[in-house]
Amino acid sequence: MSHVSEPSVECVTIPMLQRWKAEGRRLVMTTAYDAVTARIADSVVDMVLIGDSVGNVCLGFDNTLPVSMAMMNHHLEAVARTKPRALLVADMPFLSFHLGLEETIRNAGGFLQRGAAAVKLEGGAKRIEIVRALVDCEIPVMGHLGLTPQSVNVMGGFKVQGRSADDALRLLDDAWRLQEAGCFALVLEGIPAELAARATESLEIPTIGIGAGPGCSGQVLVFHDVLGLTRAHRPKFVRAYADGFQLLQDALSHWAADVRSGAFPESQESYRLPEALADPIANWTPPSVKA
Ligand code: KIV
Q1: In tens digits, what is the pLDDT along the chain, a chain of 291 residues?
Q2: Any idea what DSSP says for residue 94?
Q3: pTM greater than the 0.90 cutoff
Q4: CA of 144 to the centre of ligand 1 (A)
Q5: What is the rounded CA–CA span in Å between residue 175 and residue 219?
Q6: Among 135, 55, 137, 155, which residue's Cα sits nearest to residue 95?
Q7: Which residues contact 62 (CB under 8 A, 6 or more apart)?
């Protein structure tokens, strides 16, 4: 049996991303948490991240810490069912890679079995052994450095990282070590633009920035932020390209007003009985209730 297939739409692969970085083509990634957002994003971006940001964006949590593997699997499966051409990256949630290599591999491998092409995990030098073990199991890993939201308690809030000499140099070391351990790309979040640019030029693998300036190999923003779908505080690195919240609420209000006024539904939005049934239906009487 041949294992080589020629898909009609070319899917994005990890070697393509490496080539695009070398060619200077900027990479685009956004999040998707369900089939609707995945279908909107797929033809536009190179990578779709099933981010643990689903916790604060969609599930009403204050941060990503309560997000579990079960939640991530549920959202990944919804996205994967759309069979996207973009590369699917699934985010390893808090505590899914902290309790031993075996459990980490099972969790990450489960993501691949559900349709992800790669996993992402937060952290630097401490994660080298984990990255090596995953890569050893043919599980591609995207690293994530800088403002790593799962470390919110250690950082004392969602604060820009890498501003002191020690922090900046540690980040450059970590980026290098993650590349050496086998990461195929790195997310750089919430760090000074100069630091992100230095990391990017020193690495062979692509960097995907979020709040890390224009010098990265690509950019990622949360889907709901790009489309202005949330009313939450918007950090300065977010540029909303639509007021999606207002747009959708206006459309919904229009529909609600039409329902209340009787303008919805109209006859073309209704099903009709065959004419032959008009009389039996009009002459129907309720059956007598038996005691
Ligand atoms: O969970 C997420 O959405 C992320 C991106 C912001 C990089 O980690």
Answers
A1: 556 655 568 999 999 999 999 999 999 999 999 999 999 999 999 999 999 999 999 999 999 999 999 999 999 999 999 999 999 999 999 999 999 999 999 999 999 999 999 999 999 999 999 999 999 999 999 999 999 999 999 999 999 999 999 999 999 999 999 999 999 999 999 999 999 999 999 999 999 999 999 999 999 999 999 999 998 889 999 999 999 999 999 999 999 999 999 999 999 999 999 999 999 999 999 998 665
A2: T
A3: yes
A4: 9
A5: 17
A6: 55
A7: 56
Q: How far is the CA of 48 from the centre of ligand 1 (A)?
A: 10
189 included as an active-site residue? yes
Neighbours of 198 (CB within 10 A): 16
Q: 51: Cβ below 6 Å to ligand 1?
A: yes
Euclidean distance between CA atoms 113 and 233, whole angstroms? 36
Exposed e or buried b for every residue in 156-180, given b needs 16+ CB within 10 A?
Answer: eebebbbeeeeebebbbebbebbbe
